[in-house]
Amino acid sequence: MRAIAQRRGALALALALLAAATSARQTAAHARARSALSRAAPAGRRAAVRFSAVDARRDDELGPLHPTVQWLPPLGSEGPDEGSAEGSITLPIFPLGSVCYLPFTSHGLNIFEPRYRALYNDILFNGSRRFVVTMVDPLTGRLAKTGVVFYLDELKEVSEQTGDSVKFVCQHSVIGCVEIERVLNPQVWRTRETYLKARVRQRTEPCEPDAPPCPLETEVAAAMERVVALQAETNEMPRFTRGMLKALNVSRAPGGEALWRTVGLWHALQEQRVLSVQAQMQADISKRVVDHLKAKGKAIEGGQVRLEDLPPDVRADLARIQEGYRAQLEELAHAPYGEPFQLLLQADGHEERLALFLEMVNGEAERLARRASLQKLFDKS
Ligand SMILES: *[C@@H]1O[C@H](CO)[C@@H](O)[C@H](O)[C@H]1NC(C)=O
Ligand SMILES: *[C@@H]1O[C@H](CO)[C@@H](O)[C@H](O)[C@H]1NC(C)=O
């Protein structure tokens, strides 16, 4: 399948990884900048498929009480149109893969496909400057019912500089959350003659400035503190700084902004972890190959080695290295890609979202606690 849009900044993302921020403000800004750089290196996206497959299995085992992602019917198999509900509007849809985008983040996209050039032309022409981005189920291709609204902040026409391989470079802010009621032209998904449009309903969080703080807020804060302490104890990289805790706020601020910003930090950390594990694996693989070449007295030419030129024992070692890391990657159950974050997006209000987020943070605390006790065991022996 042809990629719809290239994501920018994957490299910068990887480099930002190890630069631990020093102050709370900086940590927050970094995380925001990182999520602004959009999500996925191709390898990460491949991993996404596996993670959501794992999650889907677990959901089945846990039964109907555990929330699962709400998907629209497969495109082209919609039931009869029941007409539009009050307050619904029509917006273009731009599905961007099996990734969940979060409110209060910003993202860059490179646009080259003709149907999406048309989309940008249309939303600029009528001044609405917005479209809906929703997650695609990696297993079935269905669209998630809950998506976010991308607002076009800036568009640069770059056909000349790129020899027409990229037409527009666009910057967007995520300004809201919608529920998709109905895709109006599902047939164009297959033909690609134009972009999808849907009738959507704005989802607004009730604004209750006087509502008492939800007890779960304290629990989330405590769980985050535990994670930060365990990260330091186990020397986890990447990790949050202690200063980050000061910036932490999961209160019921208008529109849920405070909680979303914290979720954004969490998301950025998980994203960095996946990249970090991948980088370590790459380094181990290179080291094994270089050791082999050195032992054979061979020069390393231009860093290019073909797998089929390596002897069986080295190849077996490489397979073992990959296998070892695969377990680690699978352990990243709340990887930044896909379903866990989509569940937060579709959650019905502040409390439900807090409960889901608490589960994520507690899961991570447990993982780190297991690691800490393992390390202690090794230290003793
Ligand atoms: C602007 O154009 C888009 C794409 O055709 C459409 O979905 C949207 O409803 C239009 N908005 C307004 C305000 O006309
Ligand atoms: C969190 O943010 C809200 C709204 O911006 C504010 O009223 C509240 O005092 C903040 N809480 C903490 C602990 O900083």
UniProtKB/TrEMBL annotation:
Query: Matching InterPro entries, A to Z?
Result: Lon_prtase_N_sf, PUA-like_sf
Q: Out of the domains of life, which is the source?
A: Eukaryota
* Gene3D superfamilies on file: LON domain-like
The signal sequence is 1-24
Q: Which UniProt keywords are given for this protein, alphabetically ordered?
A: Signal
- What is the name of the protein in this document? Lon N-terminal domain-containing protein
Taxonomic source organism: Diacronema lutheri
